[in-house]
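just leaving the lab so this will be short. what follows is a protein written twice so to speak, once as letters and once as structure tokens for the fold. can you read through it and tell me how you think this chain folds. thanks a lot i owe you, the record is right below.

___
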Amino acid sequence: MSSKHPFVIGITRLRKAPGSVVRFELLGRISDLKVAASRVSEDEDIAVAGTAESVHGGILITATISTRWNGECRRCLEPAFGELEISVRELFERAEPGSTPSSEGDTYPYTGDFIDLQDMVKDQIVLELPLAPVCKADCKGLCPSCGADLNLGPCGCEKTTKDPRWSVLDVLAEKDR
């Protein structure tokens, strides 16, 4: 099977036998997968495993997408990383050659005897990448005064500094006591 991308599956058998199922396992790479401070490196493998089923209206893809991501912790700016495992169930509808794909965006188009899953894989990964990654759940971040990494210990800054603009509200706190 000749293809542009590693995420192409042949569906000739599916088109000839409605109701049939084909299993697939694909491995490849996609460039430019990033959101805010997290990304999938261009040299990182993306695994897609699942089934393609001939259903009324098209080909139903049910799969799991797996890969690793990396980025910068939003609290302490140290490296952050993790793994994605995304469950997917998407319908691919046959589009006539030369026709314009439907603008509703509920399905993915395909033509001929192959389905290219790359756009679906890319969409799903971008939706699952963390917008604000953290290196660990209990990351303490940086001191807002001196910039010391609070994960390494206290910084020694005086913690009693108050913004004088909020002093009016101290009266309310005194009334509640």
Strands lie at 8-10, 21-28, 33-35, 38-40, 46-55, 58-72, 79-94, 108-110, 114-116. Residues 143-177 form one domain. The first strand starts at residue 8 and ends at 10. The helical segments are 12-16, 118-128, 167-176.
